[in-house]
Amino acid sequence: MFARGYVPGRSGQVFVVPREGDILTTANPYFNFMHGTPWDYDARIPVLFYGAPFVRQGSWPAVALQQDVAPTLGAIIGAPPLPAATGRVLDEVLAPGAARPRVAVLIVLDGMRADYFDRYAALIPTLTRMRREGAWFPNARTNVLPTVTGVGHANIGTGSEPRFHGIAVNKYFDPTAEQGKEARDVYEVLGPRELKVLTLADVWHRAAGDEAVIIGQGGFFRATDGLVGQGNDPISTRPVFASSYDETTGRFTTNDKAYRHSEALDAFDAKAFWASATGDGSGGAAFKEKEFRSSPLYQRFEGEALLAVLDHEAIGTHPGMDLVVVNLKGPDYTGHAHGPDSGELQETLRELDVQMTALLAQLDRTAGPGQSVIALTADHGMASEPAAQRRHYDTEVVAALADRLGATPDCFHYIDPANSQMSVEIARLQSLGITLQDVARCLESLNYIAAAFTEDEVRAAQAELGRAGGAGG
To answer: Of 110, 254, 428, 431, which has the fewest CB atoms closer than 10 Å, so is most exposed?
Structure first.
C-alpha cells in the first residue's frame, strides 16, 4: 500500500503504521479522531453505482477499489479510456444495451466508513434505498496508503494511484520553505497542475467539447482538485466550474487560473447561514468556524450550495451529457471532532441523506426521470474511540524517538499523523551515527506502532509492483 502511494520528494523517509485500535493524532480537539491507516475502519469504503436503466442492480462480491470508480463511470457515459488508470471497469455494473444518461454524478462522501451503511441504515433511508436498488460492492476498499483526503480523491478522480498521479499526502515537508512554513499543502504551489495525469472530468471535457457542462465542488481544495483535474481547456469555449469551501473566509472560492466560479455560490456565506439557521440575532458574533464545520449544519450548507449550482448552471439540459464531481465533507469534519459512534455523526448522516434526497429529486426535474447515473464512494474511513491509553499524539512520537535515539526533536518532521509517515533530517542523524533503519526499528519498539518502513524499503516494494504489473489488491 505504501509502494502504490510513494512519490519521491513528496513522501517521507519513514513510513509508520499504528497498531490496530491505536490512534495517532494531534492535540487539536477538532482532530480527536484520525484516519490514514490500512485497518478496516480506514480502508473499507462504500462503492455504489445507482441509476436504472444504466446500472445493473445487485450486490457484487468482487473486490472494488477507488481506482475502479472512474473507469467504470467512464464506461457508462462512453468516455475515452483514462490514460493512466490502474483500476478496472467493473463490468458487472454495466446494464447491457443501455443508452447514455443526460447527467453523471460522482460523489465522494468524505470519511464515510462502509459500515455506516449498516450501522446507521435507519438514519439514511435514501442512501439505503440507493444501495438496495443499485450496484453495491460490499468488499470495496482502498489499496493505497495513506488513507487521506488528497490521496483518495486523486485516486478516485484519475482511476490511478500516487506513484503515477503524484499526490502522495495531504501535506508534505518542504525543506526549502521559509522557517515555520515547511508544512505545505498539496496543490498549493501549482494548483491542479500538480496532478501528473488526467482525471475523468478532464477526459470528458475534451471529448464532449462545448456541448456539456462540468461542475466540481468540495469541502476542501485537495478534494475538489483531485476530482476535477486540470480544468479549463483552450480547445473548448465552455468553462469548467469548480469551487471549494474556504475555512478562512467561510465562502466557496476557486482557482480562477483553472476553473470558473459559479455565481450561485456568492449567496453562501457560512456565518450568515449559521446565524439564519440558529436564529442568532447578533449577526453571527457567536459563530465558530470549526464548530460549524463539525456539525450537521455544515452538511446542510454544502448540500444546499451544490443544489444551487446545479440549478444555476442548468445541469441536465444541455445537448451533451453533463458531468458533476463532488466532495461532501460533512462526515469527515464531524467524524474527526466527535468520532464514528457519536450522536453528532449520526445527525450529520441524517442531514446528508436529506441532501441526497433533494439531489435525486432535482436531477429528475432537470434531466428527467431515469436520465441520470450516480457513482458514490469514499476517500477513507475513520477510527473509533480507542481503549484507554491508546490515543497518542504527534509530539509524543517525536519525543520518544529523540529520547531513545539521542537526537533532538527537530530532526523529525511529523507533519500530519494521518499521512502515516515522517520526514527526517538525514544528514543530521547520520552525524550522530543514526540510520533510517535505526529510526524505523525505534518506532517499532513503541508498543503502539505495528510496523515502520524506510524509504529504501518502500522504493524496493514499488519496484516489485512495477515488475508485477502493479494493479490489484
So the answer is: 431
